[in-house]
Amino acid sequence: MNPAASVLLLTTATGFGYGLLAWIGACAALGSLPPARASMLVLAGVGIALLLASVGLAASMLHLGRKARAWRAFSQWRSSWLSREAVASVLAYPVAIAFAVTAARDGEGVWTRVLGLAALAVSLGTVLCTAMIYASLKPIRQWHNAHTAPDYLIYAIFSGAMLFALIRTVMAGAPGAVAGVAACAAAALALIAKWAYWRHVDAQTPLATLVEAIGLPAGTGAKPLDAPHFTENFVLREMGFVIARRHATRLRRIALLIGFVLPLAFSVLASVRLFPLAAATLAVVSAGLGLFIERWLFFAEATHVSALYYGRGI
Amino acid sequence: MPQSTVTCTTCYMCACRCGIKVHVENGRLRYIEGNRDHPVNRGVLCAKGSAGIMTAISPARLTAPLKRVGPRGSGGFERISWEEALAIVTSRLGAIRASDPNRLAFYTGRDQSQSLTSYFARMFGTVNYAAHGGFCSVNMAAAGLYSVGGSFWEFGEPDWEHARLFLLFGVAEDHDSNPIKLGLARLKARGAKIISVNPVRTGYSAIADEFVPITPGTDGLFVLAIIHCLLEAGKVDAEFLVRYTNAHHLVIDAPGEADDGLIARDAAGRELAFDRASGSLVDAHTVGTDPALLGEVALPDGRHARPAFALLAQRYGGPEYAPEAVADRCGIEAAAIRRIAAEIAEVAFNHPVVLDQPWTDTAGRRHATMTGRPVAMHAMRGISAHSNGFHACRAIHVLQMLLGAVDTPGSWRYKSPYPKPVPGGPPPGRSGGPGVPLDAPPLGFPVKPEELLVDEAGEALRLDGAFSWEAPLGIHGLMHMAIARAYEAGPDRVDTLLLFMANMAWNSAMNPGETTRMLGECDEFGKYRIPFVIVADAFASETVAYADLVLPDTTYLERYDCISLLDRPIGSAHGPADAIRVPVLRPDRDVRPFQDVLIELAGRLGLPGFTDDRGLPLYSSYADYMVRHERKPGVGPLAGFRGADGNAIGSGAPNPRQLESYARNGGFWAHELPAGQLYFKHANQAYLAGAKAMGLIEDDGQIVLQLYCETLQRFRLAAAGHGAHRPPHRLRARIREFFDPLPLWYVPLEEALSDRARFPLHAITQRPMAMYHSWGSHNAWLRQIMPQNRLYVHRDLAAGLGIRDEDWVWVRSRNGSVRCQVRTMSGVNRHTVWTWNAVGKRTGAWALRHDAPEFRRGFLLNHLISEYLPRSGGDTPGSNSDPVTGQAAWFDLTVSIEPCAADAAAETAPRMGANPLRIRPASEGTR
Amino acid sequence: MTMLPKSAPGARRLGLVIDLDTCVGCHACAVSCKEWNGGGEAGILPDYDKYGAEPDGVWLNRVHSYETEGEGCSRTVNFPRSCLHCEDALCVTVCPTGASYKRAEDGIVLVDTDICIGCKLCSWACPYGARELDEDEGVMRKCTLCVDRIYDESLPEAEREPACVASCPARARHFGDLADPKSEVSRLVEARGGLEPLAKLGYRPTNKYLPPRRTTIPVQPAKTREPSGRGIGAALLGLLDKALSR
Ligand SMILES: Nc1nc2c(c(=O)[nH]1)N[C@H]1C(S)=C(S)[C@@H](COP(=O)(O)OP(=O)(O)OC[C@H]3O[C@@H](n4cnc5c(=O)[nH]c(N)nc54)[C@H](O)[C@@H]3O)O[C@H]1N2
Ligand SMILES: Nc1nc2c(c(=O)[nH]1)N[C@H]1C(S)=C(S)[C@@H](COP(=O)(O)OP(=O)(O)OC[C@H]3O[C@@H](n4cnc5c(=O)[nH]c(N)nc54)[C@H](O)[C@@H]3O)O[C@H]1N2
Ligand code: SF4
Ligand code: SF4
Ligand code: SF4
Ligand code: SF4
Ligand code: SF4
Ligand SMILES: [Mo]
Fold first, then answer.
1. Nearest C-alpha to atom 7 of ligand 3 is from which residue?
2. Which of A223, A225, A229 is closest, CB to CB, to B785?
3. CA dist., res. B21 & res. B615, Å (int)
4. Helix (H, G, I), strand (E, B) or coil at A120
5. What is the enclosing helix (H) or strand (E) of B122?
6. With 0-12 CB in 10 A as exposed, 13-18 as middle and 19+ as buried, what is A221?
7. pLDDT tens-digit profile of B515-542?
8. Interface of C with A in 153-182 (CB under 8 A)
9. Residue C173 CA: which ligand 4 atom is closest?
10. C-alpha span between B514 and B493 (Å, rounded)
11. Is any atom of ligand 7 closer than 6 Å to the C-beta of C28?
């Protein structure tokens, strides 16, 4: 699949945003916000989360052929995960803002806890919708599988944790026990999830053969003779994207290192208070970079059944 | 509410002549659909036809008359007025006609107005006229017309309703594009078997039930081997042979004598046969006799003679024609050949088609039924485009005769206005000197040496060598030789080349590089060797760039045309038919229909037939000519709605309202023959009488099918030194060899002369279904389907050479090298490579952008082909053509392929310099 | 509304049946489709770089050709590819705007280009590559089954069929109601064993493809005989002994 920058930016940025919101919401719900700076933390966190979410949504607009009509995307929530994502992501704003305002007014009141819980729900919900857009696409085996949805949640929680830790560090000089441990755990989990995903897709067999694509009885072999046209067309540009194996494996290593291993390492450093600020910052930066590459691969390595008709491998 | 109109006219995105309905909305061309009532396409429309709306807006359309500025071929032109253009042509042609009319060479390509253009040439008085047939399919036309009085090509069609076995020889598309597809579908629906004999498995061959990947140039041998099997098994229709062919005619066996190999005749000149019933020699046409087909008889003069069939049986019964003997050559297993022969015999003789439809033959015999052999055949350029194509095609016709499968239910059928008495017309017209018309049409049908167009030395009078000993039956001319021969002959013999609708500097040129060099070359005084070139074209083709004067034509939706019975009509086995084109759009450019221009010129030149006795023009336009011109009393360009009341068919007085009638009838006229006239037309009394009444034929006698072609023997005897008209010495051996009255197979000339060790592969082309020669690449839709071509190579062959899909390779022949991209496949003869024809374009042509794939990756195989054969000995090389008909031997090409160096440019070669048209506005003085 | 309609009892399922046994790969259907939809009410199908290096455009129907190998089925197969108007059309349910929809009355899958936001998701959801984005208008295009022809009362009955069906010179394209077992198309599918491409993906395409066939003529070819020196088989001599009548 064609890794369009807009979509990559959308999914990574929203991942960070809603991930962070999820963490803050969770802490608020559990009442484990640092008493002294609770309201400050929530304000800052929600602010940053919504900023990132907005960046993501803006990017998603770029991807549309008819931006002015974007509002129509809210209508089909009953069947379309994309529509649901739109609804959820917009729903997140009032909830988050209410959450922040209440937190600012009455600190760790019961309402803050309730709204924190709501923020947690709506942010993870939005991420889940995004994930399901991909997970529900049958023609793409690398997306239509049991890993896609949990993975998206895990990466969101992970990237959110990195940010959460950074904010704590900025405010308190160190992530603190909760955020620190959470960050390390999330990073480790994400690392394992990505590794497991790649193992899974590498073990998959193509969804179909060319013979099945043209509906002929099995037992026949088929080779393409002539395509309907010589130059690339929409279907090939969008769904026939091919990436060299060697190139892919190299990128995978890089993504694994920058996206997960380094953030894990930096998180550990930050948690044990070795250059915490620098470490936490680096953790966020490299997680961001790494996840962007990971997302690029998630598209570039995904193959679409329709490419079969053009004799391209799936 | 859009203002919309629908007009019925005839498509011209190719030569198939389908009926179309053109929808125009608010003056804008909106949609073209097939005309469901039309006899040719019955409503269907091919890719090209549908893409017509894009051709109508092509940027390659010419916009005004042009006069060359700068060197010929540079593409530099100045816009001029029609008045100036016509004045230039009139004075030039006027001068030529007054001195030596033959110095005008007039060649027309894909047009459908040959009855007009050849009439112009005749009245002008030049023998140097031809249409595209010579490089196209003259082998089919000649072999057919000299054998059965009709032909494959456009003059015959399989009986789609009744055939049970259909053999398709070397056809990818053909002129009957849509009818053949419709027909194949009908065969499929009826569960008939389709066998495609073709080196390549695409298109029609793709859907064939059996694909026979024959080695190019060996069909004749394959067919003769089938005949061998039929003779062995005694599977011939003897009754059909004696009634409808000359199989029983007695052939004089007197080696060395002047009439050896001719048919024995009585005092009255009637052919003789031996009647086994009376045990005596009889007029071969006598009804009720029991003619001998074998044995030998003594003639009154004591010499001996044998029935033609006996000679045939002896030759093809011989071991050299056994499947086992030809298998390797043909690349077909002997067992397969025997099986196919058996299938043919099975269907022909065990499953005859019997229609209970009474009819009467020319012998006056009444038949209660029409009984036929449901084995149908069709063949085209796979047979035709080889230098042994005439005989290969004859072999197929002979096979049809042996089976009794000529115009019978289920077999191949004549399309009206055929059959015509063999060979189909008068001999070629001769010059009468300055200002005098030819005594007959320039293209004719010689049957004896004295009818050839040669001088005392026996050398060609025609520029292209047609009707000379180089190509005695060159009934369509040798268009592929025209430019080369004009160049050789020099200004004294040719002053002006007038090229109409032919891209002769490119895809119809053998060796475009050489051809364009000749067009551009000057003598030491800076005068062009070919003094003046006029091109009448509608688009910015490669050839237009080499014109001194360009006469811009309209597109097919902007003019009147007629698809005439006098030319290449749309008649079918069901009856005669013709059609018209009507203007649907008004030209938005300063262009004129070439036919109008030609008629205007004829008027200005005062040509007889186009002007009255006071020298005033007879016709105001082509439309006017279509209605009022009479070739002979009552017979004109259009056969329908004739006579004052518009009810006469075929023959009748001109009808001033004729065009309205055509328009009202959907743009065509079709006459349905009564059921009793639909078969056995060559011997069907009612049909022949009716055809004569309609003016389709002059004589309604039986048309005897020529199993044995005596005409060829006459030329051969001359080569043996008999008679006053003999070939020049250098050609005698060749005439002796190739003018065999029985079908012959020989290695194609070029192949025989080329070094097969160096060039082990055959190289051929096919028509792409969605492109018409060179004229599809400026169509925004069609070029998306095929903006470039590749060389198709058998997988194993490619693997052996380490060549993969998309690799660039060098294809080399004795004539040059072409760099192109490869596509591997398995459905191709292992010793054959092929590509789509005419897709590659010269940089700058067709108003495409400089970096178009047509220029950079598309290629022409023509660069590898030469119009001359390799020199054998010192003498001047012969033309790369069939020795009987002069048919261009495009498919005799042999090549080698090798991978390009890894660092070689991913681009085709050769790439001739870019010469896009650069047109400057009219300069002062020209209006 | 992009919920798939419950196909009401008796509702029609209009579609195409394409005969791979007769398709010669001529592209007529593709171009006539382009022509009809290029100028029809369905809107303009764009072309990009018309006369340049990368000619490209939106086509609702494209014709591939393949070579198949195998026992008795080695041949060239031409394969026209357009929307198959699936029963379980994921392209419809994923659409966030409702632009992509399937009609309850006849099962035709359409895009309402006045609503479409060009998010491309439907094209990702189509395994057959049957949807192409109009990059000029920013909306999705697909085969309309020529709704603007098949229901056009102003056309004569016989002409109310898709442009590609009307034009197909090999009569390889058939249009009709596949819900009606008695329709010509259903009979064809029944008789010829109509196939569904990518059946295992479960989209339940309405369009069907008829597989290639191979007709044979049973014979026992004559064994190689020693051709008699005079080149005439004994059988032939026998045949020609019989009296003929000219
Ligand atoms: N779409 C389209 N239609 C056209 C044209 C076009 O350019 N485009 N051109 C028109 C014109 S002018 C003509 S003349 C006709 C020609 O129509 P066709 O007769 O179909 O001519 P080609 O396309 O050259 O196809 C020649 C076929 O013969 C095969 N062949 C080559 N050598 C041999 C051989 O030795 N033996 C056998 N058995 N087969 C062989 C080739 O593989 C090819 O399939 O088409 C007309 N119709
Ligand atoms: N290698 C190879 N070469 C071949 C062949 C092959 O099979 N292989 N086939 C040969 C055969 S059979 C043929 S017939 C020739 C065909 O070759 P050509 O006769 O050269 O035919 P086209 O390429 O169709 O070019 C015809 C010209 O007509 C022009 N034209 C189109 N429409 C109109 C119009 O309405 N009015 C006018 N005035 N002009 C118009 C086009 O612009 C083009 O310049 O090619 C031959 N060349
Ligand atoms: S075959 Fe196609 S291009 Fe040729 S006349 Fe018919 S519709 Fe037109
Ligand atoms: S028009 Fe008919 S024969 Fe031609 S490609 Fe389409 S389906 Fe095949
Ligand atoms: S073919 Fe593709 S576009 Fe058409 S209905 Fe099926 S899934 Fe949708
Ligand atoms: S591109 Fe248009 S039709 Fe397709 S899913 Fe998006 S909005 Fe719906
Ligand atoms: S049904 Fe209409 S829209 Fe669909 S492919 Fe055929 S012509 Fe095109
Ligand atoms: Mo031709």
1. B49
2. A229
3. 40
4. helix
5. helix B114-124
6. middle
7. 999 999 998 888 999 999 999 999 999 9
8. none
9. 7
10. 20
11. no
Binned at pLDDT 50, 70 and 90, residue B874 comes out as low
Q: For A273-312, give the DSSP string.
A: TSSHHHHHHHHHHHHHHHHHHHHHHHHHT---GGGGGGT-
Share of chain B above pLDDT 90, in %: 95
**Closest Cα partner for C61 from B78, A235, B56, B382?**
A235
Interface of B with A in 759-818 (CB under 8 A): 784-788
Candidates C70, C121, C133; nearest CB to A221: C70
pLDDT at B925 > cutoff 90: no
Q: State both tokens at C246.
A: 């000219």
Let me know: does B498 contact B106? Beta carbons within 8 Å.
yes
Task: Report residue B924's pLDDT band, with 50, 70 and 90 as the boundaries.
Answer: low
Q: Which residues of B touch A226 (CB under 8 A)?
A: 823
Ligand 2, atom 30, lies closest to the CA of: B501
Cβ atoms B911, B69 nearer than 8 A:
no
| Secondary structure tally for chain A: helices H, strands E | 11, 1
- Of the listed ranges B189-203, B562-576, C64-78, the least confidently predicted one is C64-78
Cα–Cα distance measured from residue B232 to residue B724, given in angstroms and rounded to the nearest whole number = 42
DSSP three-state, residue B189: helix
How far apart, in whole angstroms, are the C-alpha atoms of residue A39 and residue A27? Answer: 12
Q: d(Cα C71, Cα B103) in Å, to the nearest integer?
A: 62
DSSP string for B340-403? HHHHHHIIIIIS-EEE---EEBTT--EESSEEE--EEEEE-HHHHTSTTHHHHHHHHHHHHHHH
Q: Nearest by CB to C166, which of B34, B210, B293?
A: B34
Backbone angles phi, psi at B908, to 5 degrees: -70, 160
Write the CA distances from B408 to A126, A225, B402, B864, integer angstroms: 77, 39, 13, 43
- Distance from the alpha carbon of residue C153 to the mean position of ligand 7, in angstroms: 18
First to last CA, chain C: 79
Does the interface predicted TM-score (ipTM) exceed 0.90? yes
Q: How far is the CA of B834 from the centre of ligand 2 (A)?
A: 19
- Tokens encoding C206: 């309405």
**A214 contacts in C (CB within 8 Å)?**
20, 64, 66, 77, 79, 197, 209
Report the distance separating Cα B598 and Cα C102, nearest Å. Answer: 58
Give nearest CA residue, ligand 6 atom 5. Answer: C95
Distance CA C2, CA C4 (A): 6
Between CA B371 and CA C126 the distance in angstroms is: 55
Q: How confident is the model at residue C40 (pLDDT cuts 50, 70, 90)?
A: very low
In the numeric block, which tokens belong to residue B692? 């004569």
Partner-chain contact A230 B823, CB within 8 Å: no
- Whether C58 lines ligand 5, by a CB cut-off of 6 Å, is no
Strand-pair category, B561-563 with B577-581: antiparallel
Q: What is the rounded average pLDDT of the residues B758-765?
A: 98
Q: Quick one: pLDDT at residue C35? A: 95
Q: Are B39 and B24 in contact (CB under 8 A)?
A: no
The residues near B328 (Cβ < 8 Å, ≥ 6 apart) are none
- How many residues are given for chain A? 314
**What confidence tier does B923 reach under pLDDT thresholds 50, 70, 90?**
confident
C-alpha closest to that of B303 among B340, B343, B263, B275? B263
CA-derived radius of gyration, chain A: 21
Question: Please, which pLDDT band fits residue B873 given cuts at 50, 70 and 90?
Answer: low
* Structure-block tokens of residue B825: 């496949």
Q: Which residues of A fall within a CB distance of 8 Å from B835? A: none
